């Protein structure tokens, strides 16, 4: 019994301590919720053995079993009350850790089913309220994220950071961004007027956005690409010189072109300004020189179906048509020698009349026209056909010499140079040469090479006379102007024989006059 009594005493002591603690904790719950935890932990630690222990304590304090059990019930009831108080406190504090502990207590306790159920209900209610709060926070976050994900997202994210206590100095950099952010703030405040985001919510929202917003912020932070400004160094004159040089060259070229154009224009203007002498004009009109209409030639009595119709007598019969007034040119034209070098020149038997001029000017054609013997001298529309000095006897009185042309020709430069040298040698050294007929295309006038030959003949005192060819290709007035121009040009030349002759091998205009001039030479020429 003594051991039993000792046991009872110890148990009673322990029970009193525990009850005292619990009563003491009832008063101190408000101050320290840990007491409640201690109390609950005591229950948790003892589990379902608490009732039996307490009933034993009641026996040891000399109460009957009923009283003991009622006391135990009372103790339990006090514990439940204690729990109720703790629940109310926990509701007020809304501490999540405490809530979890209380929930655990309700689930693990061996307290009566009703009290456990009531605890479960209250815990569920608490859980539901916390869930509602969480969901409201989520909605707030969602609203914020929706705002962030729209077009002005960057600015809005910055604004949220501003609310969360971030440095807003960067937002003041751009006034436009600031105004946009103010608008966004107003919108967000109007949308979420009831929900004021707490710092923790803002932290969560920031965490949710994660790196995306950080990137956006980085993008905001990144400086905008400024336009590349090309600075020109005023001291660096390398480019300037180059440009200036190009411009100068271009300017010089333009000036040269303009001057050439002006010179050309002035040449044309000068040519148009030439007033031919009345004698030249009357000669042109009398011989129907220049471009003429066929109807005009018919009215003048010429048969246009014949070759060189203007070389015939107007209104002449077929017998009269073949008549050449100059006897010399009635003789047969005979080729007798060709020379490509000066050593090949034939011996001088007859007075010679040579026909010189640029290639394709009509030298060979004029020979045929003068003698009316078509085909004796070969002609071609290809410049450079005559490549040697060809000698033709006209009867026993006169020698006609066809010279190769100079200037443009389908031949090698060396060959052309050789021709030119040969021609120059012939006209300057040939003793029996009585007259050089220098043929000039009426359309183009005298060219530098023609002037070279003129100068050579002047030096060698070789008599020369200008023959304007292809007069049928230009207007009569231009024929007269060209003749006048050349006469004026060669007026001072001593070896130049006036007047300038004007002919057309095609139309026959001026051919008869040329025969008369050349016949006189033949008649009075002496070797
Ligand atoms: N319209 C017209 N054409 C002519 C006249 N004289 C010659 N021709 C043409 O001009 C071209 C050249 O004639 P040519 O007599 O071969 O000239 P060239 O001076 O002898 O030429 P080269 O022998 O190469 O020096 C030929 O097609 C002739 O038909 C003319 O008075 N009027
Ligand atoms: Mg020829």
Automatic annotation (TrEMBL):
Positions of the UniProt region annotated as Disordered: 18-68, 174-224
Entry keyword Ubl conjugation: no
SUPFAM superfamilies: P-loop containing nucleoside triphosphate hydrolases
Domain EngB-type G: residue ranges: 349-524
Compositionally biased spans, kind Polar residues: 182-199
Keywords assigned by UniProt, alphabetized: GTP-binding, Magnesium, Metal-binding, Nucleotide-binding
InterPro entries named among the record's database cross-references: G_ENGB_dom, GTP-bd, GTP-bd_ribosome_bio_YsxC, P-loop_NTPase
Bias (Basic and acidic residues) ranges: 208-223
GO MF, one example: metal ion binding
Family: Belongs to the TRAFAC class TrmE-Era-EngA-EngB-Septin-like GTPase superfamily. EngB GTPase family.
HAMAP family: GTPase_EngB
Protein name: EngB-type G domain-containing protein
